[in-house]
Write a structure and sequence with these properties.
single chain; 255 residues; alpha/beta; Rossmann fold; DNA polymerase, domain 1; seven-stranded mixed beta sheet; 9 helices; 7 strands
Amino acid sequence: MQNLKAIIFDMDGTLADTEEIHRQSFNTAFEEYKLDCHWNQTLYKELLSISGGRERIRRFIVENNLVTEKQISITDLAKEIHTRKSDIYRQRLIDGHVGFRNGVSRLLADAINTNITLAIATSSSYQNVETLLKAALGDNFSENFKTIVTCEDISEQKPSPAIYQLVLNKIGINPNHCVAIEDTYNGNKSATSAGITTVITTHMFTLDDEFDGASLVVNQLGEPDSPMKVLSGNTHGSNYVTLELLDQLIEDNIG
């Protein structure tokens, strides 16, 4: 690889198709707290424009003037509900054995075998990352990633470039030699604002998002026998995302 030195993955919706599990877990937590709201798929798609589950809950409560019997501030209530939601979500990950999206395992293995640096930049918590990656990669999952940066490590969430700037600082690699793999408008904006070449893998909640500046937008990373659907960008003749394609996308960006 002449250009590609690192791949930085988002987690939810990118490594694994977890957003529907998140949505269901939010609703279960709302029911437990007797909060009069239910996030259907259409509403949840809109709410994904707000990075961070705790902030998503807080803003929804404020904007909809929801009433609760609990004598607690809205900020503290949102934190409490989000903590419970996260517990529900992680248990569902464990019970359901949620795996990686199509093409992720292959690309991770290829990167490891060719000494490409791997990192994670996610708006989720470290506990959520740990639960997913332990289930998919085993207890030694962290050995595969040079750094994992979560919402707990920064004050400004995506679409701010702060999380990617911190990842770049930790891995010590110029953004011109990195590719970010994301799934949302906010993730794309965060990565491109940090000067990183970006590949988007869409899903049911982000299919209609705008991805200005992304080098490639596809429905999945794909496999040789399960090709990706290209929504925008140049695949240079490849039917699935490979290290060679990522290397070429960087060349297209800086060349």
